[in-house]
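Q: My labmate handed me this sequence with no annotations at all. I'd like to see what the chain might look like in three dimensions before we decide whether it's worth expressing. Could you predict it?
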Amino acid sequence: MTVIDGKPGPNKQRRSHDGLFLAAIAVFGAMIVGLRVFVFQPFSIPSQSMAPTLVPGDYVLVSKLSYGYGRYSLPLATAGLSRRIPGGWLPQRGDVVVFRVPGMGGVDFIKRVVGLPGDRIQLTKNVLSINGAAVPRERVGDEAVEGITRRAARFRETLPDGKSYMTLALNDDGPFASTPEYTVPSGHYFTLGDNRDNSVDSRMAKQVGYVPAENLIGRATFIVFSIDKGVRSERLFQAVR
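A: Here is what I predict for the chain of 241 residues:
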C-alpha cells in the first residue's frame, strides 16, 4: 500500500469511493424491491372494463397495505392462508380493487367494490340498487367507446356513503343490464366494472362471482403513467376514485 503522510494513496481512495457507490446502489435497489413486494405493486390496464375511470394504457399503483396481506398479495409468504394479516382492514363501497380469479387461470382483475358482506345487490336497466334502494346517478354527457360507432351515456353514480365516480352505459337492455338480486356472502365482496356493458365482474357467477376477502391483492391508488399513441400527460398522477 502506498502511504503519503500517513494517509491512503489515491488508488485506495478511489476503490473506497467505488465501494460506497456500489453499496448505495445495492441499498437503493433493495428498497425498490421491498416497496414492490410489500407496499405497492404496479399494474397495467389492458381493457375498457373500468372506463372512464381507467383506460387501456394506464399504469396504476396498487397499495398492498390497504387491506393487509393475503394469499395473493404476498404469494410466497402467505401461501395457503384463508384470512388476511393483519385483519380488520376491509374494503369500502366504491374502492377500486385488484383481486385474483383462480378459476380463470390465475388472472388478476381490477373492478369497483359496490357490495359488502350481507348487502343485497341488483341492477335494473343499468341502475344499481343496494339493499333495495336505487343508487342515484346523474347523466353528464356521452363518451366514445373504442370499436363502437355509437356513443355511450356517461353517468355520475353516488353511493350511499357519498362516494361518487363516473360510469358508462351503452345498452340498458343488454344481457347483464338487469340482474336478479344477489346477497353477498360473509367474507365476500360484489364488484362491478365502471363500463357496465363491457365488463366481466361479479354478475357473471361462473367466471368471477363474489370475491373472497383472501383473494384481494390491494387497492388502486393512483395512475403513475398513461400511454396511447403518446404519453397522456393529463392522466399522470391522477388519484383513482
